[in-house]
Amino acid sequence: MTNNATMRAISQDTHGTPDVLKEIELPRPAPGPSQILVAVKAAGLNPTDWKHRSGGLFLDRMPLVLGWDVSGVVEAVGFGVTLFKPGDEVFGMLPYPYGVGAHAEYVSAPARAFARKPDGIDHIQAGALPLAALTAYQALVDTAGVTAGQRVLVHAAAGGVGHLAVQIAKSRGAYVIGTASAPKHDFVRSLGADEVVDYRTTDFRDVAQDIDVVLDPLSGDTRIRSLDVLRPGGVLVSLLPGTDPDEAAKATERGVRVETLLVEADHAGMNAIAGLAESGALRAHVEAVFPLAEAAKAHALGETDRTTGKIVLLVDGVSAEV
Which pTM does this prediction carry? Predict the structure, then answer.
């Protein structure tokens, strides 16, 4: 058991396999100016977690506590915070990438990285949403400006970002085409997708044409091929850097725009996501829930790339409905 001065956290001292993750005790943080201290009830995992664990990406500092998704209860507020009070249930994404640290019993972060958790969803659901939903929202709404009647192509539509992107695009009135392996087609259709393409057997360019917006979490060859399906004036929003030196020339030739998005902490975006979740228009599919102490098992499952939707860590002893 931890005392009031310490907390349990999942930390690593080096990069490597999931085995580098260990449960340790750390000093409990205190909220600084404009920050809140949140008692974490549930924290989602995202591909960026296991990528940082194994290779660093943006963060090379050690020791390192991973995690950006948070759902929990405000424990204390720092000077100047007016949005929340102790006891409020909140959810949000810690500022990406440097505000990391959600895989712990407590986290201190800017108040405006959070929104009030809707009463209609539990902490597991709320913990699954922030990073992936914000990524999809910032890509489709803030960057691409999706409007009713537009044709939207979502790659990896059964994945963490993809399955939320399908729902967000549908909430905007778009016609949505998703790519996924055949066993996941029923799931993608259940999200509201109008068409689903089996990327293993079909070149999406043969069936998806006159597209206004492409959301591509995959990059690489998929990214450059996606330019072929966009209508003039369309936009490709990628979540990974491009690698094809001919991409810019091809985009200019076709009269389309290419944007690469890195998710940002976003109070307005979290409020919009909260509204969609409260209305039932947005729900994360939770593939598995692990106690905090089994973070290594959660990472190992995520790295298989065979999961649908999200994986969530639940702080031991916390009661939440799945």
Answer: 0.95
